[in-house]
Amino acid sequence: MRIDIWSDLVCPWCWIGKHRLARALELLGDDAPAVEVHWHPFLLDPGADATPVALREAYAAKFGGAGRAAEILAQTQATARAEGLPIDFDRGQVRVTTLPGHRLMWLAAREGDAAAVGEALFRAHFAEGRNLADPKVLVAAGIAGGLDASRVRALLESDEGKAEVQAALGRAQAMGIRAVPTFVIDGRHGIQGAHPPEALAEALRRLAPSPADASNGAGPARDASPDADVDPACGPDGCDA
């Protein structure tokens, strides 16, 4: 089973979804299919640049005031901690572009471990309050994913991977992906949102490929998300751009 995942590195529900997917596969036990995961970029805030802006300030501007921003962050933090993820929105997180991080993920997919790099970047931002546009943070994440520090610095000091990441962002737009995390199973079935592990496990069980699927080839993508209410900004499952 191929699972393509669109996510952004500053999306808390993408980190939650990453761990819920792993838990869902564990719940399937012997019924779990062999899985090949591919990570794809998405920008929740395409207007962000390398200038740090306090995250709470950015959320207040986006979601209608400091009170609503505090409510969203508190609810998200509580959900993450219930999942065992040490999100702490009092660590001074900042809004910056995630394009360098996505370029690093692109490199890791080819020369290292993209999942490990993503995990390191999620942890750096959400648990440690690190700036994801800081080359030192990116180098450390690259090392966590098996890349040499010099290789990561060379990437960041060049245009390598920029065109490829921009092309991938364009494909996401063309596919109609407007919220993350979005999982696409075998190129055919879309699951939007970080649904609970039990719901994800049931969806994966239903979507496990059969011999007939293999012989017929991939058909058009269709929504296979478990039933859930999703807030148009950041709801119980994911975030919209």
TrEMBL record:
<dbReference type="InterPro" id="IPR001853">
    <property type="entry name" value="DSBA-like_thioredoxin_dom"/>
</dbReference>
<protein>
    <submittedName>
        <fullName>DsbA family oxidoreductase</fullName>
    </submittedName>
</protein>
<feature type="region of interest" description="Disordered">
    <location>
        <begin position="206"/>
        <end position="241"/>
    </location>
</feature>
<dbReference type="InterPro" id="IPR036249">
    <property type="entry name" value="Thioredoxin-like_sf"/>
</dbReference>
<dbReference type="Pfam" id="PF01323">
    <property type="entry name" value="DSBA"/>
</dbReference>
<feature type="domain" description="DSBA-like thioredoxin">
    <location>
        <begin position="3"/>
        <end position="204"/>
    </location>
</feature>
<dbReference type="GO" id="GO:0016491">
    <property type="term" value="F:oxidoreductase activity"/>
</dbReference>
